[in-house]
Structure formats: structure tokens, C-alpha cells
Amino acid sequence: MPLARQILVSRAASRRVEAGAAWLAGRAAGEAVLVLGASAEATGRVAREAARGVAAHAAFAWHRHTLGRLASQLALPAMVERGVVPAAGLPFEALCARVIHDLAGRGELGRFAAVGSRPRLPRAVARTLGELRLAAIAPETLPEHAADLARIYRAVLDALARERLADRAEVMRLAAEATRAGGGGDLVGLPLLLLDVPAAERVEQDLIAALVARAPSVFPAQWDPKLGIHVT
Hints:
single chain, alpha/beta, Rossmann fold, 2 domains, two-stranded parallel sheet, about 50% helix, about 10% strand, elongated
């Protein structure tokens, strides 16, 4: 089947929802569709808008997810096989706090030693390292002036491996890997609506690209074409 590709770019949220709903309502009655949005509220809004113009049963096969929730589902078989569990958000911040505490005890925090006891440091480090991981930037590629951060980064990666934990970036990577390999269960390979899906970071782009490659029809409705979703 030839791939049907369209893209809508608009800064007006109402226009994006309207276009996405029109595309969704135009699918065959009862056709399974994967709706990815920036939030559960966003996917619910576009589904409700589309459901106004279709038969009551038509929306039952619309699967609504955020990218993070879908990634967790797609990555689950690989995580079970490898014996790892997800650790995003607060668990990842707690891991960073333990690493910082251990490094401080060994006098290895470098320039961060002056603020090592401040309660906001683990959150700041977790946020920074999370962004680096999502951008697929390894600690050894950081500039020389960031050597102290690179040391913390390597220690956090070691802790993740030792404790068999998968941060958000690793979950996204495993999900993309499973999708490219033909896994993903019933959700992969469906017509795909992308509504304001965050795709600014490398691992997010990789997962979306893998989903797009297997979808028979894709409709991205985004506010900015630079977000990294490319449909050809």
C-alpha cells in the first residue's frame, strides 16, 4: 500500500485540533488509529472533536497515547527480558541525589562541591543529564570545561547500569529499537495522527521516525516545522 503523507503546520492550536479531528473523522468506520499527542488532554480533545461527526462506535478503535506512555508500552518486553525497570522523574532525581552524595563523600564533585549540600542540586543535575540523554550526548563528548559534570554524568550512567534502571531516554531508545525490529504489538503499523508531539530531542525523533516508517498513513499537526518531525 502506498504511504499517504500530509503535514499541517499552524501556530493556532484550534486549527491544529480542527485539522487533526477532520483527518481522524475521515478514516473508515471502526478503523484502528493511533493518536499521539503532547498530553492525554490533547488526545482526548481531538478525539472528542472528531467523534462529533462519526457514528458512535467509530471512535472505539482510536488508541490515544502520549509519546512517553507509548514508549513505555513498546519498550516493556525488552525491559522485562533485560531485567530493568523504568526510572524517570522523581526516581531518576533520587538516583542523581545518591550519586552526588557519594561523589561528595569522596571529594570528587569538583566545582560542584560548593553547592553539593544544597537540596536543589540533584534536581538541577537530573534535569541537565536528562536533557543530555535525550539529545544522545555522551559524557565523553562534553567540552573540557564541563569535566566535573561529565564525571557526575558517568557516575549516574554507572548507577543506572548497576541498579538495572532505565531512564526516559533508554526507554525511548528501546521502544524505537523494538519498533524498527518489527515489534510493538497491535499499536505499531496503524494510521498515525501526531498532534503537537514533542520531538525536539534525538531519541524522541528516532522513535517517531520508526513509528512513521511503519504507518500506512500519517498526519502530523504541529505548531512548528522545526520540531523534528519530517514526513516524506
